């Protein structure tokens, strides 16, 4: 039986991982207004969309809408923004197929500790496990520096330190300590991992100073980076599905792996939207967008490029 794909956007993915306990889909959507707004994102590219609440009646979309509270999903298989326990549990209760890689592996790959231990790092970077270790790291090298938690979304979990006397008494470990560098280009490469590994798109990105997503452009001309050995390693561990790798260019060259995202991202979603529209786009998340139902201070806009 050929099942239709039913898409759900659980953008609360890293929030759920960081909770270290079981949560429900509804709890994830309530955790931040951004999460609830972004769960409407599949309306821009998918044929069948799973929602907690239907959009306003005058909202323009060609997608067929299904609700979490519905009972009959016999014609569908579930696909999502990211693999999570909460969605896996919902799919089990509704008896809808949901094929995802092992969740402990997804969590391991998502952690910035994994990318630190398995890829080339910026000079002066270090995994920090204690306050004393952090103080010793701060005493050496130039400022500013940045501390990153293993999990975070859209720049959250980043602490920028501008001098050695910064207040670090309330830090929770482990943390990734990195020098702060001036980037000249942020870009992301998007792959699909199955029996083979396929590059499905490239995007350039514009992020805020703290690393929050501002916009991205599809079909971008980006530097060549060989991610294949890393992806093959991940594939052999049993991972399959969408995965994106963020990189950047700075004055010393190319930093090939900033983050590994074993899921969709805003940039990979932009690739899906561009394929649906049939032309490259610039997707912006800001105060003047109107593509998603309101409910948060920002929204999406798209222009053809």
Describe this entry's structure for a reader:
This protein is of the alpha+beta class and 305 residues long. It contains nine helices and 15 strands. It has helices spanning 13-19, 25-30, 33-38, 85-94, 103-110, 112-118, 131-138, 228-236, 266-277, and strands at 4-8, 48-51, 64-67, 76-80, 126-128, 145-148, 158-161, 175-179, 183-193, 197-207, 213-218, 241-250, 253-261, 281-286, 299-304. The protein has a seven-stranded antiparallel β-sheet. A hairpin with a 3-residue loop joins strand 9 (183-193) and strand 10. The longest helix has 12 residues, at 266-277. 33% of the residues are buried. The mean pLDDT is 93.
Brief synopsis:
This protein has nine helices and 15 strands. The chain has 305 residues and is of the alpha+beta class.
Number of strand segments: 15
Side by side, the strands of the main sheet go 13-12-9-10-11-14-15
Number of helices: 9
In round numbers, the mean pLDDT is 93
C-alpha-based Rg, rounded: 20 Å
First-residue to last-residue Cα separation: 39 Å
What's the layout of helices and strands?
Layout (H helix, E strand, L loop, with lengths): L3 E5 L4 H7 L5 H6 L2 H6 L9 E4 L12 E4 L8 E5 L4 H10 L8 H8 L1 H7 L7 E3 L2 H8 L6 E4 L9 E4 L13 E5 L3 E11 L3 E11 L5 E6 L9 H9 L4 E10 L2 E9 L4 H12 L3 E6 L12 E6 L1
Parallel strand pairs: 1-4, 2-3
Antiparallel strand pairs: 5-8, 6-7, 6-8, 9-10, 9-12, 10-11, 11-14, 12-13, 14-15
């Amino acid at each position: 039986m050929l099942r239709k794909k039913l898409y759900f956007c659980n953008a609360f993915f890293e929030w759920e991982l960081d909770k270290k306990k079981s949560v429900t889909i509804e709890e994830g959507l309530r955790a931040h207004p951004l999460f609830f707004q972004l769960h409407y994102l599949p309306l821009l590219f998918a044929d069948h969309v799973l929602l907690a609440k239907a959009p306003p009646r005058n909202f323009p979309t060609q997608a067929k809408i299904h609700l979490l509270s519905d009972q009959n999903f016999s014609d569908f298989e579930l696909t999502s923004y990211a693999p999570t326990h909460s969605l896996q549990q919902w799919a089990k209760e509704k008896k809808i197929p949901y094929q995802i890689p092992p969740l402990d592996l997804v969590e391991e790959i998502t952690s910035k500790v994994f990318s630190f231990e398995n890829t080339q790092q910026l000079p002066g970077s270090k995994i920090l496990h204690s306050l004393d270790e952090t103080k010793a790291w701060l005493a050496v090298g130039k400022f500013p520096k940045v501390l990153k938690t293993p999990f975070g979304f859209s720049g959250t979990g980043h602490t920028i330190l501008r001098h050695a006397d910064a207040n670090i008494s309330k830090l929770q470990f482990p943390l990734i300590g990195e020098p702060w560098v001036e980037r000249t280009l942020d870009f992301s490469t998007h792959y699909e991992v199955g029996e083979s590994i396929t590059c499905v798109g490239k995007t350039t990105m514009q992020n805020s100073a703290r690393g929050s997503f501002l916009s991205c452009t599809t079909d971008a001309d980006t530097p060549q980076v060989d991610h294949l050995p890393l992806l093959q390693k991940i594939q052999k561990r049993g991972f399959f599905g969408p995965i994106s790798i963020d990189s950047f260019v700075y004055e010393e060259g190319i930093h090939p792996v900033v983050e590994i995202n074993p899921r969709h991202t805003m940039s990979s979603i932009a690739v899906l939207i561009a394929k649906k529209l049939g032309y490259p786009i610039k997707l912006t998340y800001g105060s003047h967008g109107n593509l998603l139902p309101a409910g948060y201070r920002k929204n999406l806009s798209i222009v053809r490029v």
